[in-house]
Amino acid sequence: MKQSRLQRSVSTTLLGLVINQILACVKLAAGVLGHSYALIADAIESFADIAGSIIVWRGVAVANRPPDTDHPYGHGRAETLAAAAVAVMLMGAALLIAVESVKEIRIPHHMPVPYTLFVLLSVVLIKEGLFRFVGRVGGEIESAAVTADAWHHRSDAITSAAAALGISIALVGGEAYKSADDWAAIFAGGIIAWNGFRLLRPAVQELMDAAPGSDVVNHATAIALGVEGVRGVEKCLARKMGYDYVMDMHVEVDGTLQVTAAHELAHVVKNDIQSRLPRIKEITIHIEPFPSPARLKRGLGAVL
Q1: Distance of alpha carbon 259 from alpha carbon 225, whole angstroms
Q2: Among 65, 91, 176, 286, which one has the highest count of C-beta atoms within 10 angstroms of its own C-beta?
Q3: What is the pLDDT of residue 62?
Q4: Total domains in the fold of the chain
């Protein structure tokens, strides 16, 4: 499963990398020759896409390395760091586009050439298709980094669409509207910055060990409660580590149980949970007497 996930992540990222390289060069050449800063800004965003794809590619590769002495929980956070880096790059590209667009508005320049419009419309179709494909793969394998890469493609499509609108206004309106594509670039930059911020939030939450959705905790708790000899689950904490989860669980057993028997029961609970929830790669079971001191303190003596 992991190998398949790695292969899909890498192949999807490399596909985007190749397409971005081609489109970035085409847009930059067309923007310079066609006097359209919106198209040049779009090319800048595509070059950011290239750097982002490289970061994602390395991130998913490092994340799949096995645990070692320095990283006993594995390298899963490399994928989260890659997602955060891509999000920051999106916001940086948006700022660069906005600053350069303002400069272009203040400096007289030529009208954009009509063929730049057709270049942009082609880019919109290609990038939107790439966004849907990469986004679907990112969702299926639950990869924050691949999903961030998909939104890089969507941001490029948005930039291209805004640039196309600006160029259209400039071409129809004439000299009085020749800065329309620069304003379009500023608008696109704002959308790109928002997407970057939206992608950065979940990555930061994961880096801060925010609790994942309740499903994994509830499922693991139900499995533990189904093991003979388990009287209750006093606490279950989990955090995401790349694609997998690390969990700490406080299991309540009969207080008269011998240490050896309690230890064996803890292993039964751990094996049952990991066999049915393979994404929980590490789980620490802490044995407590039933009812546990914490439960008594809360006045919850009944079995969960």
Answers
A1: 20
A2: 91
A3: 82
A4: 2
